[in-house]
Amino acid sequence: PSPTLEAARACGAGIVVDSGFSYTHSLPVFQRRVVGQAVKRLDAGGKVLTNYLKELVSYRSVNVSDMFHVVDACKEEVCRVCKEGAVSALQACAQKGGGSQVVQYVLPDGVDRKVGRVNAQDSEDSHVNAVAKEGEQPSPAEMKRRRQEEEATIELRSEPFMVPEVLFRPMDIGLNQLGVAELVASSVASLPLEMREACLSNVVVCGGNAAISGFKERLELELAPFVPSGQECHVRLAPPDPVTSAWHGGAAMARDKGTFYPTIITKRLYEEEGSMRVLERMKAASSW
């Protein structure tokens, strides 16, 4: 690691990019405390991506408007972030004729298939060809299985990379807000000058969307124009797993009685004064 990154870690400085189910946050941290005035939020997360994928699939292929969990599982398995952006990915797909970019996803039927899966088209085709060469005919049960899978298969072409593109280009769905990279840059611009270099040198990405293939690399690429000359920007996934890192952080906080107990309020006080009292306690404990 570079000296700047080591210094940032030593003083507990960095930016946490938490892209979860409902929102995406950019949270600058200095001396292991959140800098509240520099926190920024994008009103897009995993739920928005899943709903967008539902709309695309329902319009182009099969009506899956009532199958949120099925589409959510499909999104987690097939979606990927294109490093160069959606336009470049579409151009590459057109140049290759689109065939190599098609993903076939078999929907669950609730009987034989409890969960959906990506159809291993190449391996199945090779098996069919091998059977044909030997002069054998598939059994009736095998033919029925293939027919059922064909009926329950959706083809995804541009959707796997257009859906997560929303996090970097919210205007694709009409959301007039900053993308993830601009969100981080806005957080840095809201920090005092003496904090900016340390925080920008240590960007930690967590949340379910961080597990999408290419997310970290795309964020690092798009942050590059915002990094002043002579400074460094390192983007890494939160260990041990970006999906569960928030839980691990909460568990660590709960074990630290000196930090956790001042943030607790009673159920009665919460019912009387609401969530604002919780926020006040959190701010007082973390020195926002």
List key phrases describing it.
288 residues, alpha+beta, six-stranded mixed beta sheet, three-stranded antiparallel beta sheet, 14 helices, 9 strands, globular
Beta-strand percent range: 5-15%
Mind summarizing the main beta sheet?
6 strands, mixed
The N- to C-terminal Cα distance equals 29 Å
User: How much helical structure, as a percent, in the residues?
Assistant: 40-55%
Number of strands: 9
Radius of gyration based on Cα positions: 23 Å
Helix run count: 14
Oligomer: single chain
Summing up helix and strand content along with how strands pair, one would put the structural category as: alpha+beta
> Quick one: overall form?
globular
Average pLDDT reading: 82
What features would you describe in this structure?
Strands 1, 2, 3, 4, 8 and 9 form a six-stranded mixed beta sheet that branches. A three-stranded antiparallel beta sheet has the order 6-5-7. It has helices at residues 3-10, 46-60, 68-78, 86-95, 121-133, 140-151, 159-162, 180-189, 193-200, 215-223, 245-255, 257-260, 267-273, 275-286, and strands spanning 14-19, 24-30, 33-34, 40-42, 103-106, 117-118, 153-156, 203-206, 235-237. With 288 residues, it is an alpha+beta fold. The chain is globular and about 70 Å long. β1 and β2 (24-30) form a beta hairpin. Residues 122-133 have low confidence and may be disordered. Helices cover 47% and strands 12% of the residues.
In short:
The protein is an alpha+beta fold and 288 residues long.
Topology summary:
Elements: H1 3-10, E1 14-19, E2 24-30, E3 33-34, E4 40-42, H2 46-60, H3 68-78, H4 86-95, E5 103-106, E6 117-118, H5 121-133, H6 140-151, E7 153-156, H7 159-162, H8 180-189, H9 193-200, E8 203-206, H10 215-223, E9 235-237, H11 245-255, H12 257-260, H13 267-273, H14 275-286
Helix pairs in contact: 2-3, 8-10
